[in-house]
UniProtKB/TrEMBL annotation:
Protein name per the record: Transposase
Organism: Jeotgalibacillus malaysiensis
Domain of life according to the entry: Bacteria
Transposase putative helix-turn-helix domain boundaries: 1-49
Keyword Cytoplasm in annotation: no
């Protein structure tokens, strides 16, 4: 048995009063973050050091006396904001991230995080209907896509308002799981654009091309939005007061949300299947950030979401006792799996592999997946 932390995301349906409180908390969290980021910047510029979490926490107490409206929202959420700021600076000094930047009201997704303190964040049964108790919000109606186990401990929650207007809550929980049975199987996976993934056993997962499948609808919605924005500007109306503009923006946001949901659904299903089938999984250690600079491939690579797939494989393998091996991508597409000969001429077309040395032929992606597995096993 193993105790893990995992996140579950559910859509929630707050009342009008609860939604006002959510937006108020998001605004206050942003204000606190930006206020103390400015103070940290000043300290960093003058001394080369940031303000510690302890200093900003004391500063928050003083700030509440000046900006009394901060007392109306969840105090734990404001403390969590300071923890996020402290973590952002630590990552910056450890050269993991860029320097922290100010948060904007114009961010497409607005959110705040609260933590479980003295059991103030839990599932409550109300006349046979499970609802979620959230600090300062009370009982919130949730669309439960899965039932949480009775022994599940909720550690923290992030409430997010999406551009589509939908409200979601992500619950970070602690659960105990059993390791998957061993299969004594290993696989190499070649990621691609036409085929989303090709396995060394010959299995191929087609790329659903979620963005391309909805591209026409998205372009049409974006054109409607552009026309309505131009019309509102000509009429001298503020965009936030133009109802037709807001409706068009909502439609564009919902299409983007649908694309993202379909993409994540595909990746979750594939990665879960692979983790169940194989004890060892090998993939290429691709630098997608550099590959995205290629204007011809950037759109397709972004739609395929290789980095997201890698993230999913990483934590799922860790949960279930599987081994994920990252191998160098050098020459995996040009090497003959049969004889080991490496030559650019081995790949006459995008899908065909024909070794100029031994004459071996195969699907190029399958050959590549076999090379990835061979490199992971130390054979090559």
């Amino acid at each position: 048995m193993k105790t893990i932390k995992r996140a579950y995301k559910f859509r929630i349906y707050p009342t009008a009063e609860q939604e006002v409180k959510i937006r108020q908390t998001i605004g206050c969290s942003r204000l606190v973050y930006n206020h103390f980021l400015a103070e940290c910047d000043t300290s960093f510029q003058s001394t080369g050091k940031r303000l510690s979490y302890g200093v900003t926490s004391k500063g928050l107490t003083s700030l509440k006396k000046v900006k009394t409206f901060l007392k109306d929202v969840d105090s734990i959420a404001l403390q969590a904001t300071l923890e996020d700021l402290d973590d952002a600076w630590k990552r910056f000094f450890n050269k993991q991230n860029k320097r922290p930047v100010f948060k904007s009201k114009k961010r497409p997704r607005q959110s705040y995080t609260t933590k479980n303190v003295n059991d103030n964040l839990k599932v409550v049964d109300v006349d046979g209907v499970p609802k979620l108790k959230v600090p300062k919000l009370g009982l919130v109606r949730v669309a439960w896509s899965r039932q949480l186990k009775e022994e599940t401990h909720i550690r923290r929650a992030t409430i997010q308002i999406r551009p589509s207007g939908k409200v979601f809550i992500s619950l970070l929980v602690e659960e105990t799981i059993s390791p998957l049975p061993t299969t004594n199987e290993a696989v190499g996976i070649d990621l691609g654009v036409t085929q989303l993934a090709t396995l060394s056993d010959g299995t191929m997962a087609l790329n659903p091309r979620n963005l391309k499948s909805m591209e026409a609808k998205l372009i049409q919605a974006q054109r409607v939005l552009s026309r309505r924005i131009e019309r509102a500007k000509k009429d001298g109306r503020p965009l936030r007061d133009a109802k037709n503009v807001q409706k068009a923006r909502m439609k564009v946001a919902r299409i983007h949300e649908t694309i993202a949901n379909r993409r994540n659904d595909t990746l979750h299903k594939l990665t879960t299947e692979w983790v169940r089938r194989f004890d060892t999984i090998a993939i290429e250690d691709l630098e997608t950030s550099k590959m995205l600079k290629n204007s011809h491939l950037a759109r397709s690579i972004s739609d395929a979401s290789w980095s997201t797939m890698r993230q999913m494989l990483t934590y799922k393998c860790d949960w279930h006792g599987r081994t994920l091996i990252l191998v160098k991508p050098n020459d995996t597409s040009r090497r003959c799996h049969e004889c080991g000969h490496i030559d650019a001429l081995n790949r006459p077309t995008q899908t065909e592999f024909a070794c100029v040395s031994c004459g071996h032929t195969a699907h190029a992606d399958v050959n590549g997946a076999l090379n990835i597995l061979a490199r992971a096993q130390g054979v090559w």
